[in-house]
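User: I'm designing a mutation panel for Thioredoxin reductase (NADPH) and want to avoid disrupting the core. Could you give me a predicted structure to guide residue selection? Please restate the sequence first so the numbering is unambiguous.

Assistant: Good idea. Sequence first, for numbering, then the predicted structure tokens:
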Amino acid sequence: MSENHNHYDILIIGAGPIGMACAIEAQRANLSYIIIEKGALVNSLFNYPVFMTFFSTSQRLEIGGVPFVTISPKPNRNEAVEYYRRVAEKFNLHINLFERVQQVTKNGDSFHVNTAKADYTAKNVIVATGFYDVPLLMNVKGEELPKVTHYYKDPHLYAFQNVLVVGANNSGVDAALETYRKGAKVTMVVRSAELGKNVKYWVRPDIENRIKEGEITAYFNAEVLEIRTDEVDIKTQEGIKTIPNDFVIAMTGYQPDFNMLRKFGIELPDSLCPVYNENTMETNVKGLYLAGVVCGGMDTHKLFIENSRVHAELIVKSIVNPVEI
């Protein structure tokens, strides 16, 4: 482990769009800062499917006042990854990548932050870790098999294979359609009685027609019972069905790292929505702030890049001009 020791006004955990926005605001306020990121720059976006298209327009994904110029109104994953990299270059943001934060401890008026590579102290800490790192598990036998994934990337891997897609929100629908078009025999398992209500409006007719035509088989009000090397058991309204299977793409959703938040001393009530002041984004721990999707707890559809960019401004304003209560 490195012996270096650094002190900052703000230490930001997470180099996603909102963590970067916090760094830009800190820079503008002449505050010293560092971003610590356990993976690549905008790691969650990097792990999105390679052909994913955002629901939002490029303007609503902008940070730092830097224009996000795209040919189509709705940018794709590759355009977004490149945009945020260029933003990091433009502002020369101080980012340590591939460095995992292990502990944050309050010592008097400052924090001690221990990572896998170094130790830091900071007057303030911002947690902007998103929610994409902890998948919601099905908790079924065989879920640990190598053929099961909770992160869908590229449809080519599944060409001419028997693929089971679990879930029918945007990620599940995209995986089903893209793998189907690569020649996969696709079966969808959906817990509810219908497709997700928030499925992209330009995609919904496509998946509905593929199901209607029998090109994709969909079981509604169904669930996975067991996964084996070459087949899967599904509980359906008609009874238990066993189907041949090569891969399971479990698009069952994600959640913030609640254990990490508790470890940092942040209060989590039964709702699992972290305790914080909506005007300052400060948690129950003085000087420890939340920014971005992590604020929503289990309601991961509540906050997005476009409606949580303001968190950066609120936090830095609170740090620069603290209001004593």
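For picking mutation sites, this is relevant: The longest helix spans residues 77-90. The CA atoms of residues 45 and 80 lie 8 Å apart.
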